[in-house]
Amino acid sequence: MAIVQDLRSQQRLLWLVALGFFMQTLDATIVNTALPAMAKSLHESPLRMQSVIVAYSLAMAMLIPASGWVADRFGTRRVYVCAISLFAVGSLLCAVSSTLAQLVAARVVQGLGGALLLPVGRLAVLRTFPRERFLQAMSFIAIPGLIGPLIGPTLGGWLVEVASWHWIFLINLPVGAVGAVAAYSFMRDGAPVAVEPFDWSGYLWLASGMVSLSLALDGLSGLGLGHAGVLVLLVFGLASLVAYWLHAMRVPQPLFSPRLFSVVSLAIGLLGNLFSRLGSSCMPFLVPLLLQVSLGYSPFEAGLMMLPVALAGMAVKRITTPLITRLGYRRVLVGNTVLVGLSMMSFALITPTQPLWLRVLQLAVFGAVNSIQFTAMNTLTLKDLEGPQASSGNSLLSMVQMLAMGMGVAVAGAVLAGFTAWIGSGSAPTLARVDTLSAFNATFFTMGLITLASAAIFWQLPLGEASVGTARSPEAEGPTGH
């Protein structure tokens, strides 16, 4: 009887963690198709709404490095309940926001809650399930990471049309309430864990650097900062990251040890993740905006057009590992990075008269090669890590993924704003569709070029290395299932 109750308790925990992961991944994509409707309601330009996405990703990137220590210090159940509650409160604040500044601040609150959902939930599963069942349990939790991005854009577009954009946040409230009650009832805190002193100095330097660089990029368009303000933020951000590096080299237990970068696969994998995602992460933001602002799609139609990206990404998952095993990481990542860049640049050729089937094919091709890219980059980053390095490397990878997602959208927003001002001479308050389409086309070409350049990073890999290591776990594919 006790065994049956224990199995039921474990199953409830899996569903609970999967629910939290679903909420997090859904909100990472559901906003994209609603941005034009939000802009209209808040009296903003739809081409300046990237701060809504950047704030969420940056808040997650900031808190992820501290998530493990927080869970150990205060207990997994208490932190998980607080995380779901904070996510729900942030959702409510988003729904009642009446200005862009309020919405961005609310997205920060939502992102702080979302940052704890998966790492703390994963830790609870690790402490509950025996080693032989852990991989199976994590595979179950990874499923929402595929479903959330699949339905997010379409659901967001549908809610905007049948109700209003506020409901893309309000739907989180009943789910969050049920999740918080279930977490308090079914999640165990486990045995007390000895907590090492947290590297607060290193954390503050690292967080300051990430925030400053992201704000500098977003300040070129979304925040409307002048060149002097952007330059100050850039210098402060770079100085903060250098200060963290110097700090980490001299303290015994830094947040992330510089010695991690002595593992060649991790160093190349992290840098490749950062620069490759700077380009490709802008696509879920740019494509729905292009379809609605320049091509006249409704929010629901724009959401439907994102389905080929997610479906093609899921379809190629099974061939990625055999492909790496046969060709090796260097050939796969260099060649596939070029394909990702070229597929992005192909969107520069979009015209209002383009056949629908060709547009769908473009999106499907991008989804397929982008999925291969993310899986290959993540397995490369983690495959040679063992023991304590594996946990630290996984947290560092998660942080870099979220940081690159936010910075990619910020860069794309700045590039789009620059081309829009240049094409429209910066004088007209609203531009004709043909002008915005030209600005979008130029932006796609530029962001694809950035992605192409990142292939040089993967070129540094040893030729023929094809071992797909065991350090990788399903959740390493990022907060959006990639």
UniProtKB/TrEMBL annotation:
Signal peptide: none
UniProtKB keywords: Cell membrane, Membrane, Transmembrane, Transmembrane helix, Transport
UniProt name for this protein: Multidrug transporter subunit MdtD
Bilayer-spanning residue ranges: 52-71, 78-98, 104-125, 137-159, 165-186, 198-217, 223-246, 258-276, 296-316, 328-350, 396-419, 439-459
Subcellular location per the Swiss-Prot or TrEMBL entry: Cell membrane
Membrane topology: Multi-pass membrane protein
InterPro entries the record matches: EmrB-like, MFS, MFS_dom, MFS_trans_sf
Keyword Nucleotidyltransferase assigned: no
Keyword Protein transport recorded: no
Organism listed in the record: Curvibacter cyanobacteriorum
SUPFAM superfamilies registered for this protein in UniProt: MFS general substrate transporter
Domain Major facilitator superfamily (MFS) profile: 13-466
